[in-house]
């Protein structure tokens, strides 16, 4: 029973990664009714999604060992990818809050109080 409690967060992590990857594409953003992302923002989001995929892989291998962990990851990967594709096809409004959150501007950097010195 305790092993199944691990599968839910693993699946949610993979689902979020595929949702992020899908929402960096203009076609899916248009379906959710949000504006296109800048190239830099899309690249950053894809990097985060890749990190989530790798995090899920390492977590599955660490929890279930290399044989079954890799198989579990591949199975959940397929299930989550199909789920995201079906939801984007039938009810893309589900992803609208995430798409709007992705388009929010980043907070401005605070000055650290240190001044840069130039070398001569």
Description of the molecule:
- This protein is an all-alpha fold and 120 residues long.
- It has one domain.
- The protein is 72% helix and 0% strand.
- The chain is built from four helices and no strands.
- The protein has helices at residues 4-22, 26-32, 39-90, 96-103.
- Helix 1 (4-22) packs across helix 3.
- The mean pLDDT is 89.
Q: Which key phrases capture this entry?
A:
120 residues, mainly alpha
Structural class: mainly alpha
Indicate the percent of residues in helices: over 70%
Rounded radius of gyration (Å): 18 Å
Counted by DSSP, the helix tally is 4
What's this entry about, in short?
This protein has helices at 4-22, 26-32, 39-90, 96-103. The chain is mainly alpha-helical.
List the helices and strands and how they pair.
Elements: H1 4-22, H2 26-32, H3 39-90, H4 96-103
Helix pairs in contact: 1-3
């Amino acid at each position: 029973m305790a092993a199944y409690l691990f599968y839910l967060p693993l699946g949610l992590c993979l689902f979020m990664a595929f949702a992020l990857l899908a929402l960096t594409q203009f076609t899916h953003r248009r379906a959710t009714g949000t504006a296109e992302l800048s190239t830099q923002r899309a690249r950053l989001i894809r990097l985060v999604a890749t990190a989530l995929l790798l995090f899920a892989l390492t977590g599955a291998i660490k929890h279930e060992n290399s044989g079954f962990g890799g198989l579990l990851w591949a199975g959940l990967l397929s299930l989550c990818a199909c789920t995201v594709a079906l939801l984007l096809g039938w009810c893309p409004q589900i992803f609208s809050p995430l798409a709007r959150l992705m388009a929010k501007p980043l907070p401005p950097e605070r000055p650290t109080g240190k001044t840069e010195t130039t070398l001569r």
